[in-house]
Amino acid sequence: GQNIDQPTEMTATEGAIVQINCTYQTSGFNGLFWYQQHAGEAPTFLSYNVLDGLEEKGRFSSFLSRSKGYSYLLLKELQMKDSASYLCALWGTGNTPLVFGKGTRLSVIA
Amino acid sequence: DGGITQSPKYLFRKEGQNVTLSCEQNLNHDAMYWYRQDPGQGLRLIYYSQIVNDFQKGDIAEGYSVSREKKESFPLTVTSAQKNPTAFYLCASSTLTPTEGYTFGSGTRLTVV
């Protein structure tokens, strides 16, 4: 099976940088996803990491280290609209469905 | 525009009644999924299907049933056997190798009273 851990809640200030961590235990996987979910809405795709390293996409970046069982999502120049839950998800081996962590609820304050 | 549609957005049912949640996609995706989301629990997989007329149980399939008679449609029935059916239900679709992730519907919030 797969076990995914994320902090439950985080708070950060508008304009700042925040890092949301995701650690996992798994015997093997294809890649790791990050999703954003505003309250009561559907999750939306942010990033997909297959190889170790940093993937940058505008204000959002995602990092993966397979050897350390660790990923993080980095949000820069925080805006109030970034207040949402951020979900880490593993795509296991083969064509198995994504397994989601419980999500990190981020609150951006003025 | 291609997308995935869930209906209804809100649903109220009396305890003991079966209820069917609709999910339709026009993205030509082979795979479709149903997840349940409870506060503090993240998304948990109920059922998924990767081909018409075939589907597999997820981690919490008890009390639920599905069908996949058409590629575009993957309805979920919440039966009276499901002990705690009140939840937010999310349908998603993807290619068989989802390197671009899943596309989610807007969800159905089911309340059983």
Question: Care to describe what's here?
Answer:
The complex is a heterodimer of chains A (110) and B (113). With 110 residues, chain A is mainly β. Helix content of chain A is 0%, strand content 57%. Chain A has no helices and eleven strands. Chain A has strands at 3-5, 9-13, 18-25, 31-37, 44-49, 53-57, 60-65, 70-75, 84-91, 98-100, 104-109. In chain A, the strands form two sheets. In chain A, strands 2, 4, 5, 9, 10 and 11 form a six-stranded mixed sheet that branches. In chain A, strand 7 (60-65) and strand 8 (70-75) form a beta hairpin. In chain B, the strands form two sheets. In chain B, strands 2, 4, 5, 6, 9, 10 and 11 form a seven-stranded mixed sheet that branches. A four-stranded antiparallel sheet of chain B has the order 1-3-8-7, with no helix packed on it. The mean pLDDT of chain B is 94. Chain B is mainly β. Chain B starts with a strand and ends with a strand. In chain B, a hairpin with a 3-residue loop joins strand 4 (31-38) and strand 5. The relative contact order of chain B is 0.32. Chain B has strands at 4-7, 10-13, 19-25, 31-38, 42-51, 54-57, 64-66, 76-78, 87-94, 103-104, 108-112. Chain B is built from no helices and eleven strands. The chains are: A mainly beta (110), B mainly beta (113). The interface between A and B is medium-sized, with 23 and 27 residues.
